[in-house]
Amino acid sequence: MRLNKFIAASGISSRREADQLISAGLISVNGKTITELGTKVSPGDEVKYNGERIRNERKVYLLLNKPKDYVTTTEDPKERKTVMQLIMDACSERVYPVGRLDRNTTGVLLFTNDGDLAKKLTHPSHNKKKIYHVFLDKGLSGGDLKKLAEGITLEDGFIQPDAINYASDENKREVGLEIHSGKNRIVRRMFESLDYRIRKLDRVYFAGLTKKNLPRGKWRLLTEKEVTRLKMSAYE
Fold it and tell me: Of 108, 155, 159, 233, which is the most exposed, with the fewest CB atoms less than 10 Å away?
């Protein structure tokens, strides 16, 4: 197996990032530092990253319905609750969140130790569809709905959702929004630019995955079919 594939299979990085680690002299095989790309390793070889042995673990794909008040990080220096606490008994392998949700944003969050897939799902060139249920502090006017639908310019550029509409005809404080952009806090910033505050934000769809039949704060493993479709980019 090629060394970069072995590293990516451990969940540490994608293959491209693994090549960078190799070139930087951070990888050793059987005690010898390796800098040559394309190097191959055998099952019995001892591969280390920064002196710590890399183990080729089984791939795990896990979906969490994230509750509010949890930060999407593996550790938090402020000692706030992290999403890792919610999945600590899910598997023995070390998995990581794919992308992030704000502390008070709820909904679909994927975890895996598959570095290549994580890179594919989060890289700007592969922006995946996300659908949010937005709860506002006041009713969204028809004029502002039209502005958002046509696109607005924020400090980091123009942004236009793929679709936006009221979640129901009776309540204009609830909006459904479909978007591909992965920019930081993009949904909140869109509404804030028009003087609306988001009271609650729930991601109900990410790259083909939904929180259907998954209670808040609970997790489940993806099915083989879901994993295959994610790897094949069958979902938007």
Answer: 155
